[in-house]
Amino acid sequence: MRVALVAIVIATVASGFNRTQTVASGFSRTFPAGPEGPALRQSRSAESLALQPPTYAKDIAPLLADRCGMCHDAGGAAPFGLLTYADVKRHATQIVTVTRNRYMPPWKADPSNGPFVGQHPLTSAEIDLIRRWVDGGTVEGDPRDLPAPRHWTDGWRLGPPDLIVTLPQPYTLQAEGTDVFRIFVIPLPVSRTRFVRGLEFRPGNPKVVHHANIRVDTTAASRALDDADQGPGYNGLILRSADYPEGHFLGWTPGQVAPLLPKDLTWRLDPKTDLVVEAHMQPSGKKESVQPSIGLYFSDTPPTRTPAMLRLGRQTIDIPAGEKQYTVTDSYVLPVDVEVEALQPHAHYRAREVQGEATLPDGTKRLLIHIADWDFRWQHVFQYESPLRLPKGTTVSMRWVYDNSADNPRNPQRPPVRAQWGQRSSDEMGDLWMQVLTRNEPDLVTLTRQFRAKVAVEDVNGYELEIEKHPDDTGLHDSAALLYLEVGRPEGAVAHFQKALALKGGSAPAHYNLGTALSVAGRLDEAVSEYRQAIQIDGGYANAHNNLGGVLLAQGKTGEAVREFRDAVRLQPQSASGLANLAWVLATAPQAADRHANEAVDLAMRVVDLTARRDARALDVLGAAYASAGQFDRAQEAASTALRLAPAEPLAAEIRRRQDLYRQGRPYVAPDPASRR
Amino acid sequence: MPRLLAALFVGMLVLGSAVDVVHAAPQVRVLAVEGGQNVDPLAAPAGIKAIVFLFTSTDCPISNRYAPEVRRLATTYGPKGVAFRLIYPSPAETQTGIREHMAAFAYTGAAQAFRDPTLGLVKFVGATITPEAAVVAGGKVVYRGRIDNRYVDLGLERPAATVHDLSEALEAVVTGKLVPHPTTQAVGCYIADFAR
């Protein structure tokens, strides 16, 4: 079911490429006017309320139009309209019941949290006003008091989109049963890179679509699953390759539309990207046709800032059957100042209460989010009206409580069974996602690097659990191996890639992956053997040639390495990694006979162009090439530019060392691994 | 001996909570969707052991989600002498709207439909909610309440029902036993609102 990992260009032994995130500084941001309605009309004074019974026209109609109309309108998400006297009267008792128990309007978070975009809870006084209107006989009142008619669901709430995509074929939802989760893959027909300011989801059949998780997949992996499944979409899990775009939440809950992003905070959309929409649907009693549409809003300018996505949570969740108070906690100390843009708590059916909190450096606590009655069916991204500043040293923490007993009506298993971490809705999860902005790019780099390490360790736990359940799933082994590499445990990666290789019966990518893990583990001879097997199966495998070159170089076999790098570049002339590796060895080879400075400069300049002068490693290669050609001023300049991009250690220290050499008019020559033996 | 007495006592309590319907009350008349202005909802051909009145409305989502279950029960118990009658109590429901609703949810042919705009039958059996079932057998309302326990409250539902009250009641009726729980609380839309 899963697609083989092809071409992971990870740190090869000789030189690899670290993508640097590009973000300019700046905290200030303004949101454009959101799709919220006009403020509620001035309500009558408490005194006059006490004297005369409330009427529909004067008291109830404006209240319901403001708080309920976005769904309870013809064509809205709600099962019936609430914008006429007849309709409201027909549901009067129900309105009293559901407002008093705060099922409606749907807002699961404690009203004191936020304020968040789209948060319009009814006050206790307003709930009481509705009750008194019903008790007083649902008086219509003077029609002249009615508010001007307002229609929420006509057209797109964010305005005419720049691109509208629709599920090509409608999906037929079964008539009965519990929640259905179906993943639709919708290609985005853009012929050039665009920058997305927002998207608006229209469920197509709002009566049955309860909420939607939306991701983007720049690979063909999700599409392959969709193609393999009959009918539109597929059943299963959102793949790892389908992710939130560059730290942005995407999703839809009824009645809510995330406002457009400011132009400096857009996200990049490249051609051949698919939208991956996981629709959560509730059968209605009859077969239903579901055909969602998504409107996208573009900007022509790239973002100057990128948010980071933090995720607290555990993948070691293991709840015994019958356990009523299983608690999951996690915390993280912020290494830099941040502004929290949005929060999304996530758990499945057994969670009963979720709470996120921030403890400031001075010890004061601030409640971020508290949902006393967690309901998996009302998942929402809580976006702050204005971002919440949290200083460096703040501890953000979460505490989720689960009830895996038969007393929890939402428990999907009866009798209850042991529940472990897993992405299926019958498993359990517990995460608090936080979208944050940092003050500047170095802070973003610090935060993402530190945070990624924490998350990867947790992800390893999750994958091992999944693999226990599905030991023959090659995709799981591949993904787990990648994580082991990320957390610096290459032997774990070797073990999982070996397993994947055995399961796949020896494909070229499987040999390649294993070779890469072996090279990172320092098992160079074995790595060479795996890469050669990959190339034997697929002679056009550019990345295998490239990585093999890296290993040979580390073994001191410069000539052989150059041949492999040349093959890589021949097969893939636009590969920055291949070009950079070839330039590097031609510039810095231990033996003078292997060095070809002018060719190295030409190649390095191509790499710098390909990476838009934003990659420190590319500029470092260019510096070394210039120095090799005796152009030390240019070499120094390239090194300075590289250092201004704030590369990670140890690369930064190496560039500084080389810059010192260039100042002294000396080129950098790589040590000869052969002579060290 | 004391144990037997206690058992008898409990049994009588259960009997006592069933609503007595001495005979088809002359004032209770409904409108048949397929014609018939003044229909006695309790009239039934010979051989019918029980009538299920299933109170519903065209736009109540919980009622509608039960359509497949109601059809299943009608298919199971129809041959055992149970008649299923859909009752639309809302005065706002039209003949055409009900026909469309029945076609959409595949009720057509599975159950007869009646309108009860004056709420005569609603009051007679004590229904308050759609969907709610009332089972009349032997001249008595032997069961009134939910179809099953899938919905706990508005906004709180189980992934699947664990107690199937209406099915249990019908099983008891057709096998000549006492209905174990003669009244339960239904969850859904309020019939009281229809009469406002």
Written description of the protein model:
The complex is a heterodimer of chains A (677) and B (196). Chain A has 677 residues and is of the alpha+beta class. Chain A folds into four domains: 46-145, no CATH class; 163-299, Jelly Rolls (Sandwich), CATH 2.60.120; 308-439, Sandwich (Jelly Rolls), CATH 2.60.120.230; 461-676, Alpha Horseshoe (Serine Threonine Protein Phosphatase 5, Tetratricopeptide repeat). Chain A contains 19 helices and 21 strands. Chain A has helices at 46-51, 56-67, 85-89, 92-100, 124-135, 221-228, 441-469, 474-486, 490-504, 508-520, 524-537, 542-554, 558-571, 576-588, 597-610, 616-628, 632-644, 651-663, 673-676, and strands at residues 163-166, 171-173, 180-187, 194-202, 209-217, 242-243, 251-252, 267-269, 274-281, 288-290, 293-299, 308-313, 318-319, 326-333, 338-347, 351-359, 365-371, 382-390, 395-402, 419-420, 430-438. In chain A, strand 16 (351-359) and strand 17 form a beta hairpin. The longest helix of chain A has 29 residues, at 441-469. Chain B is built from seven helices and eleven strands. Chain B has 196 residues and is of the alpha+beta class. In chain B, the strands form three sheets. Chain B has a seven-stranded mixed beta sheet with strand order 1-8-7-3-4-5-2. A two-stranded antiparallel ribbon of chain B has the order 6-11. In chain B, strands 9-10 form a two-stranded antiparallel sheet. Chain B starts with a helix and ends with a helix. Chain B has a single domain (2-194), classed as Glutaredoxin (3-Layer(aba) Sandwich), CATH 3.40.30.10. The interface between A and B is medium-sized, with 32 and 31 residues.
